Model the fold of this input.
Amino acid sequence: MNCPECMAWSEVLLTRAPRRRRECANGHRFTTREHYEDETVTMTYLTPGDLAQRWRMDVKTLSNWRVQGKGPAYVKLGEGRNTKVLYPKEAIEAYEQAGIRLPANVEGAA
Done:
């Protein structure tokens, strides 16, 4: 990336995504903001508490479902008692779509 003052090539001094602290060959310091188009970065996750509130159910129900192999796909981060569970929003929406049912009299009406 070029320096906004002198257009000299810059080096990264400090990295804190999405901000990058840079310095050019002439000593000018500036901060840039990186933009990512990668879909893994933009994926949204919900905590079990958020999902329980969305579906108006108890968090313990979601915990029981995970043990039983039911419910939407989830991600586990960490090990043991300090494990964090997150649900990808795309998996939640897919699970909700799969659960949509039409009344029996609607199917035979046409």
Notes: DSSP finds five helices and six strands in the chain. Residues 59-68 form the longest helix (10 residues).
